[in-house]
């Protein structure tokens, strides 16, 4: 190599080498400070693309695991409600079996029926009001009106469809058969109150209906009574006038109440929504109004109690079948979550091998680059002596 004043080749080589070493040192320091081997697409374009796909799948599966756990909670809420409904049905069965025994009087059965009806009301309440996150689940709710799709994977096809609509329809039918619907019982209670109001009104000699939608009562009664109970008491005592008046009262009151029920039946919030008014023309007292409830459910008589034993048994079977469907899907989701966890673990491991810094390797590379930077700086200083050597040859 010629000794030249204009071109210091040794200096140029040293500068170029020092620049490369500085770039390598900077890259090592960047990787060690961020913890990532790839900090820009220039570091590893293909690796970055692969890692992005792995990361997308991993994040999607993480959300899918939470979705699956939420789905389990939702179904456990529904199944837990039906567990309590089953407990209620057990007690209703006990009461029906007890009332069906011939050792009890009608008054005894009436007392048993009071508890039976309250349990039936709570049965309907649980079935209609159980909710999860503000969404009703059973009667008229998410599971009762159609299928529910749970997103349990990172692609649009990874879904679990839960369909218990048929089973819940069977439960709803069994509840109505075993206890009558809550709407029917509320309407019957309202009809009872209206009957008593109308009967008391007529027994006191009034001829105009006390009900806003009722028809005129007809001819006034002949006797004098404080209320309907007083009329019945005098009739049972053998008072012929009271007997005649009771017949007239029944004709007027039943006609008025039948018209009242027919007008309001089917109007939500009227108190009669769901009451079968087509059978109302035959009733003669408030006990007959009760028979208008769907299925005439209850245990007030031995015949009703005997029928209730079978209907409540059918309800327990329907509840059990629905709970089994929920349980099967819950168990399936438990396995789904385990599998998703395994997939996510391996995806993250693969992504880490591409993206993460190997600190042992990179710290060694940084140490090497630091040593080369120091030696390069020394050689850059030494390369200044080459032009001075040329001057010494001229002296």
From TrEMBL:
Q: Which GO terms describe its cellular component?
A: bacterial-type flagellum; extracellular region
Among InterPro entries, the record links this protein to: Flagellin, Flagellin_C, Flagellin_C_sub2, Flagellin_N
* Gene3D superfamilies xref list: 3.30.70.2120, f41 fragment of flagellin, N-terminal domain, Flagellar export chaperone, C-terminal domain
Q: Where is the Flagellin C-terminal domain?
A: 310-394
Q: Where is the Flagellin N-terminal domain?
A: 5-140
Transmembrane stretches in the record are: none
Location relative to the cell: Secreted; Bacterial flagellum
Where in this chain does the entry annotate a coiled-coil region?
none
Cite a single GO MF annotation: structural molecule activity
Q: Which family does the record claim for this protein?
A: Belongs to the bacterial flagellin family.
Protein name stated in the entry: Flagellin
Q: Which organism is it from?
A: Vibrio maritimus
Biological classification of the source: Bacteria, Pseudomonadati, Pseudomonadota, Gammaproteobacteria, Vibrionales
């Amino acid at each position: 190599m010629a000794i030249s004043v204009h071109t210091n080749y040794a200096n140029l080589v040293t500068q170029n080498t020092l620049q490369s070493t500085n770039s390598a040192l900077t890259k090592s320091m960047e990787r060690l400070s961020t913890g990532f081997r790839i900090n820009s697409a220039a570091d590893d374009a293909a690796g970055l693309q692969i890692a992005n796909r792995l990361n997308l799948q991993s994040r999607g599966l993480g959300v899918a695991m939470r979705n699956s756990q939420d789905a389990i909670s939702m179904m456990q809420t529904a199944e837990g409600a039906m567990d309590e409904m089953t407990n209620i049905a057990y007690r209703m069965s006990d009461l029906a079996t007890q009332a069906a025994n011939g050792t009890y009087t009608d008054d005894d059965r009436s007392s048993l029926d009071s508890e039976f009806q309250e349990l039936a009301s709570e049965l309907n309440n649980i079935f209609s009001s159980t909710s999860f996150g503000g969404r009703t689940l059973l009667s008229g709710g998410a599971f009762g009106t159609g299928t529910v799709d749970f997103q349990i994977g990172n692609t649009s096809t990874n879904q679990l469809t839960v369909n218990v609509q048929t089973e819940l329809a069977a439960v709803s039918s069994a509840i109505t058969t075993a206890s009558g619907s809550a709407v029917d019982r509320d309407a019957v209670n309202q009809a009872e109150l209206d009957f008593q109001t109308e009967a008391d009104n007529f027994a006191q000699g009034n001829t105009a209906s006390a009900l806003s939608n009722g028809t005129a009562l007809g001819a006034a009664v002949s006797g004098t009574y404080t209320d309907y109970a007083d009329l019945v008491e005098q009739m049972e005592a053998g008072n012929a006038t009271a007997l005649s008046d009771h017949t007239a009262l029944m004709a007027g009151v039943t006609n008025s109440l039948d018209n009242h029920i027919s007008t309001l039946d089917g109007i939500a919030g009227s108190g009669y929504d769901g009451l079968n008014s087509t059978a109302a023309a035959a009733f003669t007292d408030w006990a007959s109004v009760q028979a208008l409830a769907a299925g005439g459910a209850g245990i007030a008589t031995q015949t009703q109690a005997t029928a209730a034993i079978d209907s409540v048994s059918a309800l327990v079977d329907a509840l059990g079948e629905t709970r089994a469907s929920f349980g099967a899907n819950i168990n399936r989701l438990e396995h789904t979550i385990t599998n998703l966890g395994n997939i996510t673990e391996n995806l993250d491991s693969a992504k880490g091998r591409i993206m993460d810094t190997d600190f042992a390797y990179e710290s060694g590379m940084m140490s090497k680059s630091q040593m080369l930077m120091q030696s390069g700086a020394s050689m850059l200083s030494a390369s200044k002596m080459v032009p001075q050597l040329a001057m010494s040859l001229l002296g």
